[in-house]
Structure formats: C-alpha cells, structure tokens
Amino acid sequence: MRVLRRTTSAEAGSASCSAMAGGSGSGSGARPARCRLVSRPGSPGSEVPPASLTIRRAEARPAGGGEGARRAAQDRCSGGVPSAAWQHPFLNVFKHFRVDEWKRSSKEGDVAVVTDKVLKSAVYRIRGSVSASNYIQLPRTSTQSLGLTGRYLYVLFRPLPTKHFVIHLDVSTEDGQVIRVSFSNLFKEFKSSATWLQFPFVFETKTPRRDLAGVAPPNARWTCLQLDLRDILMFYLSRHYGHLKSIRLCASLLVRNLYTSDVCFDPAVTITEARRAKLPVNPVPREMAFPVPKGESWHDHYIHVRFPSDVSKAPYEQVEKRHSPPETGHVSRCLSHPKVFGKPLQSSRSPVVQISSPILPCKVPSAPRLLPDVSLTYKHPEVSSVAASSIPGRHPSSWDETTDAHAVGGGRHVLANKSSGVPMALEDLGSCKLFLPDPVLRLKGVIGFGGHSTQWALWTKDGMAVVYPCHAVIIVLQVDTRQQRFFLGHTDKVSALALDGNDTLLASAQVQPPSMVRLWDFQTGGCLSLFRSPLHTICSLSFSGSGALLCGVGKDRHGRTVVVAWGTDQVGLGGEVAVLAKVHTDFDIQTFRIAFFDETRMASCGRGSVRLWRLRGGALRSCAVDLGEYCALELTDLAFARALDGPWAPSGGILFVCSHSGHILEIDHQRMAVQHIRRLLPTQSPGVPLTEKQNFSLGSGIAISSLSVSPATCAVGSEDGYLRLWPLDFSSVLLEADHDGPVSSVSFSPDGLRVLSTTTLGHLGFLDVPSREYTVLARSHMAPVLALSTEQNRGQMATVSLDHTVRIWDLTTLQQLYDFSSSEETPSAVAFHPTLPNFFCGFSSGAVRSFSLENSGVLVEHTRHRGAITSLVITPDGRFLFSSCSQGSLVQYNCAVSRCCVLRVAANMLCQDGRPNPNILAVSGDSCRLAFVGPSKCMVTVVESASLDKLLHVDVSTLNLASNHLDWAVAVCFSPGDSGHLLVSTSSNKVVVLDAVSGHTIRKFSSVRSRACSSLALSEDACLLLAATGRTITVWDYPTQANPSCQVYIGHSEPVRVVAFTPDQQQVLSVGDAIFLWDVLVTPESDQSEPGVPAVHEAGSSVGQLEDLASGASGLPRQQVPIPSQASPPPLSIHDRPLEGSAGTFSISDEEGLCEENHDVSEAFLQAQAPTPPVLVEREASGAGDGPRETAKGSWAPAVVHHSQTSEWSLRRVKTGLPTRPDSYKHFTARYKASTRVKSVSFLPVGREQLRLKTVVGYNGNGRANMVWRPNTGFFAYTCGRLVVVEDLHSGTQRHWLGHPQEISTLALNQDGQVLASASCSGGTAARCQIRIWDVPKGICQHLLSHHDTAVQALTFSPDDEFLVTLGDYADLTLALWSMATYELLSSTRLPEPVHSVAFNPWDANELICVGTSAITFWLLQHHGTDTSFQVHREPVPEELGASELTSLCYGASPLLYCGSSSGQVCVWDTGTGRCFLAWEADEGEIGVLLCSGSRLVSGSNTRRLRLWAVGVVPELRHKGSSARSSSVFMERELTLDGAVVSASFDSGMDMGVVGTTAGTLWYISWTEGTSTRLISGHRSKVNEVVFSPSESHCATCGEDGSVRVWSLASMELVIQFQVLNQSCLCLAWTPPSCGRPEQQQVVAGYSDGTLRVFSISRTAMELKMHPHRTALTAIAFSTDGQTILSGDKDGLVAISRPCTGMTFRVLSDHRGAPISAIQSTSKEYGDLGVEGADLWLAASGDQRVSIWASDWLQDRCELLEWLSFPAPATSETLGLLPPSLAAFCPWDSAILVCVGLGAHEEVVFYSLRQKQVVQKTPLPFFAMSLSLSAGAQLMVVGFAECMLRLLDCVSGTAQDFEGHDDSVHLCRFTPSGRLLFTAAHNEILVWEVTSPELLLGT
Q1: What is residue 1498's predicted lDDT score, i.e. its pLDDT?
Q2: CA of 913: how far to CAs of 211, 920, 1729, in Å?
Q3: Phi/psi of residue 1350, each to 5°?
Q4: Cβ atoms 962, 949 nearer than 8 A
Q5: pLDDT-derived band of residue 645, with 50, 70 and 90 as boundaries?
C-alpha cells in the first residue's frame, strides 16, 4: 500500500516538505532546505551550541525485531525506521533501491553507466567540475530516508584521475539528530560541529606540486572504503548511531555499488579462500568481491581503506578515557616509513590510500566549483566546538576541539583526523622511534605581561597569587615564591579576564572575532566550557561573587555595544553555559561590574554616563544616574565599596566612579543620586580643601585611569604614573608610588593590605601598604622580541626588541636586571662575549656597540655598516665578532680585548635582506669556520673565520630538484659536536644537513608545519634539534637517521623569532611575542623528580596544550598543531615623560623628523609605522664618525632595574627596514629616478609663455587604475608621469593638468563625471602623497589633499559622491575617508596587512570592501553626528583558493561581489551574508582587473590576457545552489595584449572599452568584433633620441627597448615600428635635406652591440646592417650630403662609414677612453675657416673635450680644425657623476660653437671658431643634461636633471622656465623649422608648440 504522510506546518517550519509516496519519511519534522553553499558560523547551519539553533529531528525509533520485508516496507512507507533483520547479512543498496530506474533515487549532471575494464562490469560514472551539480542521491528527496541500520557502509569506487570527489552521508542518531558526514579529497582539514563531520581524503604521493596534492593520482585504483558509522559518531560526537538516512555521491568518481552490513568483511579474502585456509575472518560476499587474476594478490590491484581502524577498546571506553587530561602538553608527529603495498589493513584510524608511483604534474582544467559547506571565516578549532554539556554521558572537561592534520610521511597519503580528544594509534609504530620521554619539553616560565591589554591582573581569594594574561597564555603567579602555572588553550591574545569570589571559576576571552570565551576550573586548570559569544569582540568580563553569573561587554560586528549575561551555575556540574540576557546599547561602556552585595545588580560607566543595571525576568535593564553638569565627563572606572559606620556613610553600598579629568563621583546606588563630586588636582593650594567642589575651569586634573576601594581607603592609578592611596573622604594622600609609565589598572587584595598595579609599559607589581614597599612582579617587552643571547658565567640572557630596548634577564629568577634604551634606533641583534663581561648589540642605524655589564656603559661603537644590522655572532673562543647588515656587508672584529676593533669589511657577502635574522650567520664549535647565507639567498657560503677565505659554496636551490619553485636558505647552524656538519633550513620547509667540507647532503628533516624554519638550534650532545616554525617549536630526535620523530610545541601567538638552548643545556628558550622558558626532560624520571620545577597543574604543563588540554589524547601526542589566529597588535598609547631635571616634556613631532631629509619610500615608511612604546634615553649627544671610538656618556646609558625604579621617557619614531613588497603586481611602485626636483620654479604670467604644451606621447604603464573613460560623455583621461592627460578621442586634442610634484599612481572619476581625483607618490620635495581634486569642466584643481606617506594604491568615490576613500600602499597601510563637501579627513584607519584594492558598494554608500593579503574586509561607515568612523569585519580567503591572495574586486548584480586572486581564480561572495559560494579558474596568473556589468564579467591579468565571461547563472547559483539549471560560467572572448593589464574601463553593455597595460599602451577593445586597436602607445623604457624628416612630416624616436618608432608629426600617431630584440637603440639620425626624394628617406640607428642599421621609411624595411664598433654606439650623424655616416662609441672611437658600400673607411681615436656624447655635422663654404672641405662636424666626449673637423669625404679628406678642452666641474664629487659634455653648432652662425656641461660652472659657453675664443657665457641654474637650438628663431632650450627646462632667447637674453616632466630632461630637440620642441624624460615625450613672436611673424 502507499501512504502519503503530510507534514504539518508546525512540524516542518518554514522549510517543510511532505514525504512522497513510496518513500520513507524521516520523522515528524522535515529537515530544513540546505540552499546555502557555504555554511557560516552564526548563521543557520553553522556550528552553534545545540541549545540555540540545532533542530531536533522527531524520527521514530526502531521498533525492534522484524517481521519480514513486507513489514519493513510498511515501516518505510509510514515514516518509521525499519527493523534490521531484513538487512542481514548485508544489503546491496543500488539493487534494493533500483538505482537504474531512477525512481527512488535521483541523478544530476553528467551521470552515465559505463563498462569498467578492470572490474569487467557496469559501473556508474559521475563526471563534472562542480561536484554539487553532478551526483547520485539516494533516496530521491531529502524528506525520505533510506532507513539502513547496518553498522558498516562499504563504498566500492574509484576516483577519477586528477579530480576531486565528494561523498556525503546523512546519518541519524538514536535521538533523531541528523549528522552530515562528508569525505572528499577536496577538503584540506578535518572540521566538525554538533551536526556535521568533514574528513579530508588525502592521496599521499611524492608530487612536488602543492596544487595537485589533493587530487586523485593518475593511477588511482578501485577502492573499498569501509566506514564504521557507529564508531564515527561515538568517537567524534559521543552519539549513538541510529540508521543511515541518505547518501550523495558527487563527481568525480566511478562507483560500482554500495553495501551495508553489521558484519566486518575483509574484501581481500573470498569465501573459497577463507574456507580453504580456515581463516578467522569474514570473507567478502561474492557480489561484493573485486575480480583478482589468478596467482596475484588482491592488494596489488585494489585498495582497502577502513575508517576508523580496529582499536583495542570499545568506543565508549575510549570516550570515557578522555575524562582525565593528558600528561603531555605538546603536539607530536611521527614520520613513519612507507608502507608495504599489499598490507591488508592500515594500522591507523584514518583511511589510507596507497599508491605505487608519484603524481605526475598535470594541468587541472579550469572550472567553477561550488564551495563546500564549511566555515570560511573562523578557521580556529574553538569555533567548530560546542559546549561540553551538550554531549550526553560525557564530563564537560573531556571535550576538545578538532582540527585538521596533514601527514607528511613518505610515499603514503592519509585521510587524517585530528580529534585530539580521541586516542589515536600512531601509524606503523614499528618503523619509527618515539621520543623518550614524550614530551621532551615542559614549560617552566613565561617572561611577559599583557599583549592585547595591560589592564587585566587579578588577585586570588587568599591574596597569595596574581592571575594575568601574557598574549595567549594565562599565568598564575605566586607572589612569594614566583612560581608560575599556566592556563593554555587560547589561540589568540587574551582580551579579558574574570575570577569569581571563591577561586572556583576563571573566565577568559580572546581577541580573534567572534570572541571565544573559556570557563576554567581554577584549581585544576581544566577547561570546563568553551563557547562562542554573541559578541564580535569582548573587552570586559565580570563575575558575580558566587560564580553563578558572568557578564561580558563588547561590540557586535556592526560596532554597537552589547552587554551579555551568562548563567554559569551548572558548568561545574556538567551543565552548559546559558545566555540569560543580551541587550544592545547606544551609550559608551568602559567598565562594567557586578555588585558584590546583589548578583542581580550591576553598574557601568563610560563617556558621559553612569548606569545602574538589574537582571530580572531574563532581561537586563538599566537606568542612568543624573550627572548634571558633569554629563560630559570621560568616566574610566568604577568600584563598589562596603558601607562603613560613620556620619557620611549611607545605609547601603557606595559606588565610586573616576574620570579622565580627575573627578571622583560618589554615588548612592539605592537612591541613584550623586552624593559627592571631588576632583584630584596635580597641586593643591594651602587654603583650598581638596573636597571642595571643583569646576572645569580650574585647570587640568589628574587623569585617573583606574580605582579600587577597600573598606577604609581608595587606590587611584593615573596616567602621570602614580599610584595614590586616599582615605574615603579624600582629605589627603596617604601613600603614593611612582611608576615609569601610565598606570592602567589598580586592585586591592582581598585583605586590603596590598595594591596590585599595572602600567601601559608592561610592568606588573604591588604596593605593600603596611611596609610601604613596592615589589615588581613582571616586566615585559612591549613589541616582538627579535633576538636573544645567553651568558654562561652569570646565568643571564639578553634580548632585543622592536620597542627600542635591550634587556638583561636573570635566567634563574626570570627578573629583569638591566634595561638599555634608545629613542632613535632599534636594536636588532645581540651577542654575549663568552669570556668578558661585555655584550654586543647591533642597531637599525648600522651601528655596532659594545656594552659593559660592570659599569653599565658603552665601551666602543663602530659604524662600518650602511644598512641595518641583521645578525651578530661571536666565535666560542671569544676572538672574533662578525656582524652583517641589510646591504649585504660583513664586518669582522677583533674582540679578544675589551675595546674591540675592526679587522675587515667585506661588501656584498651576504644576502641583502632588510629583516633582522640572527640565524643567517653561524660559527662552528671550534671557532674555525663561519657560515652565512649569501651572496644571494640561494647560496650558503662557508669561510675561514680568521682570514675570511672562502672554503665552500652551496647552491640551496639545487638541493630539491623535484620542486617547481626556487628554494632558498633561511637559517644556518653548525653542529656543536661535529663542526663538519652544517644545518641549513630552506624555504621549502626542510632542514638539510650538509657536509661543511664537501657540501654534500647528509640527511634531511621535513617540517610538519607549512612554514620555513626561521631559527635552528642543536644541543651540544646532538640529541635534540630545535626549529622555529611559524608560531610553533619543532623538536626532532636528531640521532635517528631514518624517519626521525618530532614533537611540535605551541603557545606563541606570534611567529617565533629565535630558539636556543641555555648554556647548561637543561632548558630551551623561545622568543617572539614573549619569552618562553622550557625545561628539557631528558629522562622520564626527570619529569617527576626534578626539584627545581614549580608545581604546575596538569592542564597547563606546557604550551603544547594550547588547545583545550582538559580533553587530551590520553597520553598520545597529537598529530598536528592548530594554527593560532593572526591578529595585529593594537596601537599603543604613548605618553611623553619629562626628562630628568626638567619640568616639561620632550617630544619630536612627525614633521620635525621629516624636514631634515627624506628618502622616498624608506623615510615615508617610517612615518607610516604604528605608534611604538616610549623608551628610556638620556639626551646627551654622542660623537660621530666611523671606527672605534668612545661614545659620549649617556647616549646609550642603561637603567639598572630596581623595584621602585622610575625612568624618563621620550617619544621617537621606530626606524625599521623597508617593508616587503607584496607578491602582487597590483601595487604601484614609483620608478626609480636619479633626478632631483627643485622646490620652486618661477613662471611667467599666462599668455606670455613662449612654449605651450601641445601633446604628450605615451601612457604610464607603471601606474595602476590610472585611466578613466566614460562612454556616455566621451571623457577620457590617463596619466603620463606627473601629468593628467585629458584627450578628445575624436579630434585627438589634449588638455594637460599639471600640478603633481611626483609620479601619479592612480585616478578616479566620480559618479556624475564632474570631479576627477588623482594621486601622486611621495619623494623629493613632496614629504607626503598629494591628492588633487579636479573640476572636470573647468580643468582646474579645486582642492589639495595630503595624508598618505608613501603612495596611494587606489581611489574610489562613494555612489552618492559624498565621500572619497584613499588607500595607501603596502608601506603606508592606511585607509582614509574624505568628505567631498568639505574636503576634510573624516577617518583614517591603520591596516594590519597590505590591501590590494577597494570598492564602494554601489547600492549602499556606507559600505565598502577591501581585498588584501589574507582576507576580505567589509567596512561599514558609522555616522555619529559630525563624527564618522569605520566598523570593520574581516573574512579570510576561502581555503579552496589555497595560498593565493585576493587582488581585485568588483560588484555584480546585487548582492554579488566578484574577487580575483593571485592564482588566477575568481570567487563570488554574497555581500548580504558575507560568504563565498562559488569559485573558478579564470586565468593562469594574477588577476589585477575585474569589471562587471549585468551578466558579463571582464578579467585582466599579468599573463597579458583579457577575458570576457558570461556570469548570468551566478545569481541563480546563489539562490538555488546545486539545483540551479546550470552550474557553469563560460568564457565568451579572449584577447592577448602586450603587457599586464593595469587599468580598464568599459561601457554598460561590456561591448567596448579601453584597457591599459604595463607596456605603456592603451587599447580600444571591441568584444563584438573581437579586436583590439592601439589608441595610445609609447616607449616602455628610456627614449634616447628624437630626429625629424626634412619635410617635418614625420619624426622618429629610439629607446632602450630596442625599438625605432616613426610617428606622424601632425597627429603623433605611430606609423612604423622597427624592433631589434635583446638590444638597446642608443642613437638615431635621419637623412639630411639633400636626400629629398621619398626613396632616399632613411634613418640610421646605433645599437648597444656596436652595430648600426639603416632603415628605409618608404619600404618599411632594414636595408643595411654594419658592425663598425666593438662597443655600444652612443652618437651618430649623417654627413651633409647623406652619403656618409659618422658614429661614435662608448670607448671614444669615431667611425666613418659609407652606407652605399657598407664599408667603414676611417676610424678616429682621438677621443679614446671617453664615450662620445655628441656628433653633429653642418655645411660650410669650401675654404671657410681656412680649411678645405664642405663639411664641418664636431665630436664631444665625456672627458670634457670637443674636436671640430673639416672634411671632404668624396676626396677622403678629414682635417682637425679645433680641439677644445674644459676643466671638470668643481662639484663633480658631490654630484656623483659628471654632467654630459654637449656641443652644437649655432644654427644662425655655424662658426659659433655652443657648449654646455663643460667647465667649472653651470653655464652655456659660446665659442667662436673664427676668433678662437669664448665670446659669451650665459649662466644656468644647474648643470645641463640636454641642449637644442632653434634655426627658426634664435632660441635655445636646456634641460636639467631637476625635471625642468629653460628656454633662452639669445637675442633679448630673457629666460623662461617650464616643468612637466617627472624625471631628468635628458633630451631636447627642436624641429628643423623651430615650430615644435620635443623633450624627453625617461620614456615620456612632451611636444611643445613654440609661440615665439619671430616664428609667428615668419609664418
């Protein structure tokens, strides 16, 4: 019978569907439709606690024993779950459900039945690039159920080669919960939630290509995948398996069949074999068996993967075992041997696929793919977790997050899960030795405090310990014994702490949004609960006294303040955390406290408000306290005080509130009234009592940051650095303590006898009130630690940090001993002397200083380096010190004496890298060898330490020939025991051990982390090898030769810079965000008997337990490390401190620091750095100079730290190295220019200029998005150098907007086309970038904006044209918002990483989006009255894009956003939900330009390709997902241009557009015709010469790119181009007027290889090639009759050649030794000047000499007429190079020679050949770089290196200056008539129209 069961709306909800006839209903509640392709946390379908969004399925429970198939069919039709009897012993799923009929199952996409040659049977083939659109699904609809109860599911399939496949299983638990279990080789990591498990299926091969690591190998075999569904649910979710509900097999695979059974079959054993051999196994049934040829093994042809594998204990026993935390606190990985092919079963819980050959590199077809249903935003394991209380039958502390694992074993690939809470059997234990002990490291101590905030420090109930965070670690410090214990589990910096009144519960939140909250058992250290808060960020936590209520305050993703109350009373009893109330507020909250006397009452304070809160009836309500005239106070902290007996005390508690202005408010919380308002002032007049009410006009009060109240006193911390104790009436100060920085928090101990205080400088201490003594508990670096060095005799350690300090620490007590500080330079390297009480420190300025620990002073200083010091190393015998710098130089010092001296300076020895790296230098243990990375990053060099003689060169790039990527060295280290071994870490994540003599590879270590080892350290006994791998520490068992095991330790929240052993080898040091000290556990007994180890609780025994250690791995090491989240440190508040002996403050402004000098990007980058902590310094000047010298006392004086030490601080800028340019061509980099720009140029009034800029030839292909075109208005503009060129495409006329001082980087046109914004970079006279706002109709600059320091990456206007957003480049890292109404800067935001592109939402002017290095950022404009700010939300790059970056973006149809990546992929985002749901391979290179309109998308990349895509199906894919009619986008057209695409603009239909490339070309694109037409074209590189045809119809140019281009002089359109590859064309000449016939029109070009080529203009072909020179030609000219060619070369030789014969008949060597700079020929009367010949020509050379010759070439006569020699310029040393020596015949008097650049002064010299003397000198402002004289009028133009040119009227003597070029004007040429002037600077050609009156009269 057929039963139609109808689901009511109450049961099904909004996504209900009725069960179809013949199907099997899943229960009373239908499953919601899963339309989203990517499930996101916080949205339906994401990982959230079941109490909030999990939908319970009301599926019927099994009815018990079966009554046959008829009863089973009835059960299935009625919606119940059938009995299991009819499914025994196994069930053929395809046969039972008749898949071939497609009635009870469904297929989608490319699904076909084919015959497999191996199995010799029919199989189903599922193909297609999008798995979600090509699949087989059983049953047909999601509302039906298969009802299969078999424990095991057997999937017989074969993956298609080089493809990805996906298998989805919906499994129902006994309580009706449906769990989605997915397997795919597309997944890169294991992920889980309460309703979802995702397992990566990894094919392990030896392929060197990472992009093919996940695809199926070419020789993929048929596989029997055996899934134990019961164990999977029990292991990972502690749920009991009910039945299998549905199956979906997605492309790309072949599937033979599916089977379910309760029997565990062995597919390699048949029934016959089992009976014959009497094997104790269950043989596979005949219909399930794969055919095996006779005499061969099953395992030679097929693969059996069982998941999970057999384990010795039942699943529930294993889960119960997780109840206790593990002993180990680390993460281990065993790298085993390759398995023998044919082993029946893998000894791993993970499915294993073995292959016999590596994957061959192959191209994966480009196709769009729907992204899997995973979280893209929150990659951290905490996000994918649920509260422990939601798991039945399991102790809360036993829960642990699950993370991904990628095995790195040789030859095998593992489907690895990393559920660290489940014991996992290590694979192939027999082939790999484990560490003894395990773990080998244990965390002993952490030096540091704060990280995210320095205000969180709490007393314990007994007042004997202090709880505080240090980045991602929470530390409990015993104040008397100084012992530490740790709470480990956070993956990012801790943002807030709270401890209940009974020391039972500790709450902590971390920074990474969405903020995760952990509840800890404070006594045991176990994590009781982990949950995601509804807050984006949490800034404050507060516990009630009993611990039953926890309140948090923070911001949501939109920037609104939120208060949340959680109920925590059931956590300790196994319950879960419940949200009791949540409320959004519009007022500011700085502090929030729960009252100690009533847990339902709270108080908060903030800017202008004090509010009293109450929790009642599940709601939080608040009421404001009337502050009256004090409503504008900035309130900072509050505290409840118990009432005292006295006349002033009320009957209830009193609330004290403090403010930034020094006011303290006393509030009666019962009457909600202010009782007293007092103000604390810095000084007090004798007659004015402090309790008197103060007005705002009385001056500035003490800026109070925190207060705490005891029954009798009030402690106040202020920004002046003082902790003050007052009586509660504030009559007088009882006690005060001075700190060396602003106090950030104060707190009374429970007994009121101690006051804990913290400062913004990272100091933590307490004031003991009875004894009046202050004790420092902790000091900390306030920026990343760059390097360390240890000293053996005193047990000390030195560290250097970006906070400008060098600190000396005691390794025993972990206390700071000394603090050396500088305000002007950053220490970057440090090294202790092995025998003397000295240490050496290198600085960013290039200085190396020696410090004495005895007198705390500087012994000697050396400044031989020009770059920042990158490394320091000293030989163990103390003889030599070596230093390296970022410029690659190596300096050797003799440090055997206290005052070391320089021995040798070697340049270009090391790799030039601006980043400090202490490990690029290494010395051997015998002090004989020095190894370093250099001279390139691919080379490692070993030299003799005494003589620096080279012993060995090793090319690291050749060590891994299988890799397609260039490998380079990262760090080097000698083996201490064997100096013949050199360890090198490479960029391919390997450590290579080399023979230091021969260079042969001895062995290799592979890192389990995908990070290169930035630091190496080997123990003296060569047992342990340490490596810093990202944020982790990897430890290898060094003696093990084959597959050494390793352990990975985590805990640092930032990359580890250095790892090192202590001198006694008993401990390990690691530095990065903080300083970690680890004990080395040599033997297992040492773990228990070591007396010096503090007692630490189990859950926090090591930083390796950064995951939730309360649920460990039962003693077995975890296989992989979760990657801690990356968060940029917040900007620090900087307060100037007065110098000693002065009453004021000393500070240097940004402007002052920049007025002295500016070094383009480097100096501008210094401006862009975030504020840094102030540092201790004394302002006495030190001496200057190089070499050893005594430094002036006090320039680097240390501060010896005592418990009450007060320091003087001053603010200066951090001087770090240049930032690393991102590997993206999207970023603008200004072309290097050797020219300098004058600060001011005097111009004549408009209308009186004799030159008018007419045409600009060329487009700046170096810019980015520097072209705009509006088809509707015809407006077309682009940039060339520092000019904005506005061109009419119809007439070709141009307008030129001049004003930028530097090269323009980008343009933007507003929506109505009336305003154009242009931005230029900084440098030269421009200290900052200049943004000009142009009025388009008028062509004038309306306004000038300036904010960015280096370059502007992008400009964009809002849709309503009210705002302009400017984006700084990778060095600037700022995003600025401007008002277009007032041109005011509304907001400026510091970016944590380089951003490549930005765009406004066209449908919402308050939203814009940026794409950058690792994330896409959504910005929301917040308007608060006149204030505007940004609210930011970041989404990481989808994992499906791999390691690529998002480089471009554009909006499509609402709400779609298209993003291009550096790997050529295009991904599509839904901006409404912030999720990425589609991606496809659009190109092979980086996509830099994306434009979308309607259903068409244009992409442009650095592969020179421009592609047109049809994307009309994308909106449907967003809505319907896999059920869309089509799942593919397709490419309509493709064009290949001449360079990478940098700018583009298209019409609304995307039919035509204009595209700019890096080749300096603008193309007109017609997609309709499929053509590209060149609009604007120029030289790609420097233009060397311009020549003209006699008729002035054409001109020709030549350039460094080897091209000769012929232009039409009227239109300046390119007519002909002659190209010579791999050569530079350096000089050019056109045939003279005597060759007037068209067939005689030729140009001759000289090239860098010494050849000259003659080109025919009429025939557009090369007619002659000659090779008269051995070196490059530098000058060339025709004789006056055009029959002879004169050419000069770089060596000073002048060759005379005849083109008609192709012979060189004379060579003149008079100028030998200096390059020929000019050759010119003119005519004269035959006997004129006393010599015969009709030709007069000259040659000028670079040695300031000119020769003048008279010749008659027909008679082979050439006679020297004059030889001129001039003195070299006096300023040549300061210039660095001589100006060119130029000479020319005066066109109006050929007997006059005009010379520039020759002589001691900046002048033009007129020399008369008749008078034989100088007849005139005209002074010039600078030395000339180019010269030209006009024959039409007596005009002369001179170009200068200062980017300007001067027009001289030789008749009147007047001069006019003009600018417009962006570089040195190295070329000036008048046309023969003198009507036009061509000037060139690099590749820019400007054509000027000469408006001289003489020329106008001549016309």
Answers
A1: 96
A2: 29, 10, 62
A3: -115, -65
A4: no
A5: very low
Residues 986-1008, mean pLDDT to the nearest whole number: 85
C-alpha closest to that of 1529 among 370, 373, 111 = 370
Contact call for residues 1637 and 1652 (beta carbons, < 8 A): no
**561-581 pLDDT, tens digit each:** 999 999 998 887 777 888 999
Contact 1369, 1391 (CB under 8 A): no
What span, in angstroms and rounded, lies between the C-alpha atoms of 603 and 615?
A: 11
CA distances from 1376 to 31, 1133, 1331, 1346, 1511 (A): 47, 21, 12, 10, 33
Q: Which of 859, 861, 856, 858 is nearest to 1198 (CA)?
A: 856
> What's 450's DSSP letter?
B
What is the reported pLDDT for 1189? 39
Residue with tokens 């009929």: 101
pLDDT-derived band at 1642 (thresholds 50, 70, 90) equals very high
The reported pLDDT for the residue numbered 1634 is 81
Helix (H, G, I), strand (E, B) or coil at 169: strand
Angle (CA) 1572-1575-1581 rounded to 5° is 105
| HSE (side-chain half, CA atoms, 13 Å) at 766 | 25
* Residue that is written with structure tokens 């609304």 in the block: 1548
Q: Which residue has the higher pLDDT, 1873 or 961?
A: 1873
Cα gap 1032→1054, rounded to integer Å: 9
For residue 1338, name the pLDDT band (cuts at 50, 70, 90).
Answer: very high
Query: What DSSP string describes 616-680?
Result: ETTEEEEEE---GGGTT-BEEEEEEE---SSTT--SS-EEEEEETTSEEEEEETTTTEEEEEEE-
What is the reported pLDDT for 641? 83
Contact 558, 592 (CB under 8 A): no
Burial readout 1081-1094 (b: 16 or more C-beta within 10 A, e: otherwise):
bbeeeebeeeeebe
Task: Give the up-direction half-sphere exposure of residue 160: CA atoms within 13 A in the CB hemisphere.
Answer: 19
Percentage of residues in the chain with pLDDT exceeding 90?
Answer: 36
Q: Is the pLDDT of residue 1030 over 80?
A: yes
CA 1043 vs CA 410, 414, 1650: distances in Å: 9, 17, 59
The first and second tokens of residue 409, run together, are 């074993």
Question: What local confidence, expressed as pLDDT, does residue 914 receive?
Answer: 58
- Please tell me the distance from the alpha carbon of residue 42 to that of residue 48, in angstroms, as a whole number: 7
pTM of the predicted model as reported, rounded to 2 decimal places: 0.46
Residues ≥6 apart with Cβ < 8 Å to 680? 662, 663, 664, 690, 701, 702, 704, 716, 718, 724, 730
- Per-residue tokens: 241: 């398996």
What are the DSSP E strand ranges found in 1742-1854?
1745-1752, 1757-1765, 1782-1786, 1789-1796, 1803-1808, 1813-1819, 1824-1829, 1835-1840, 1844-1849
Within 13 Å of residue 1658, how many CA atoms lie on the same side as its CB?
A: 7
Unique residue bearing structure tokens 């359109």: 1613
Give me the phi and psi of 1640, to 5 degrees please: -95, -5
Round to whole Å and give the CA distance between 887 and 865. Answer: 8
* pLDDT reading at 1276 higher than 70: yes
Long-range pairs of 941-950 with CB within 8 A, sequence gap ≥ 24 = 941/909, 942/982, 942/996, 945/875, 945/880, 945/882, 946/879, 946/880, 948/890, 948/892, 948/904, 948/906
Q: Which pLDDT does position 1496 carry in this prediction?
A: 94
Q: How confident is the model at residue 1009 (pLDDT cuts 50, 70, 90)?
A: low
Instruction: Point out the least confidently predicted range of 11-20, 711-720, 1365-1374, 1784-1793.
Output: 11-20
Look at residue 1216 and tell me whether its pLDDT is greater than 90. no
Contacts of 1149 (CB under 8 A, 6+ apart): none
Tell whether omega for the bond before 351 is within 30 degrees of 0, i.e. cis.
no
Backbone angles phi, psi at 844, to 5 degrees: -65, -20
CA-wise closest residue to 1364 among 1329, 1330, 1425, 1408? 1408
Please report, in angstroms and rounded to a whole number, the separation of the first and last CA atoms in the chain: 107
